[in-house]
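Long-time lurker. I teach an intro course on protein structure, and each term I like to show students one example going from raw sequence to a predicted 3D structure in token notation. This year I'd like something fresh instead of my usual example. Would anyone be willing to generate the tokens for the chain below so I can use it in lecture? Attribution to the forum is fine with me.
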Amino acid sequence: MKSAESIDGVLCVDKAPGMTSHDVVGIVRRALDTKKVGHCGTLDPLATGLLLITIGRGTKIQDLIMSEDKEYVGTMKLGETTDSQDSDGEIVETRPVPELAATEIDAAFAKFHGDFYQMPPMVSAIKKDGVPLYKLARQGKTVEREPRFVHVYAHQILALRLPEIDFRVVCSKGFYVRTYAFDIGNELGCGAHLRALRRTKSGRFTVDGAITIDELKTLPREAVVARVMSLPDVSRLRGA
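-- Reply from a regular --
Happy to contribute to a lecture. Here you go:
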């Protein structure tokens, strides 16, 4: 069995709802009895799915892994806008949802395809003068933010159950899916917020077969170690 010092690599974790990415890092540290653990690409507490955990020397390639494209499936709810742009926030505006044709919804999604600028939400980890925006938002403050250049490679409307829409999106790093839902809701004239989100892919890593939080908490250490992808395997998967 590998010693705590010799574990180097990446662990694909299927994050459960209601926990932060930092919570998952703590669970992995305890499961592997090792301190050098990081994560690639924060998932909000609301979100589930693929969270890539770097261990040991794997933390040195964290930025490389984080730079890769992501795939998500989600649900947006039309007619309600929240202060966080997702269902964890407080509803700040309610508007009637018009009778929308599928072609109108298609057109709204198509407007946010390819290259465009996205305004980061106030409830985010981006820092303004060294202070995370979410801390300022908690104080009721709104500050000027710089729009971010983002890219949507692919999108698909999976189901229409108005006022809810299920969708899939493949996007660049730094993309806010809740802002995507917010912007599409505004384009449709009724507002929207993100009700559910699941990350399914990051680069060539997939959530299929990822270790669950329950498994991290209950499996013996050697079984968790066996699920860690070695750095050579990570390199081959990334095509490096």
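Some talking points for your students: The chain is about 25% helix and 35% strand. The longest strand covers residues 148-161.
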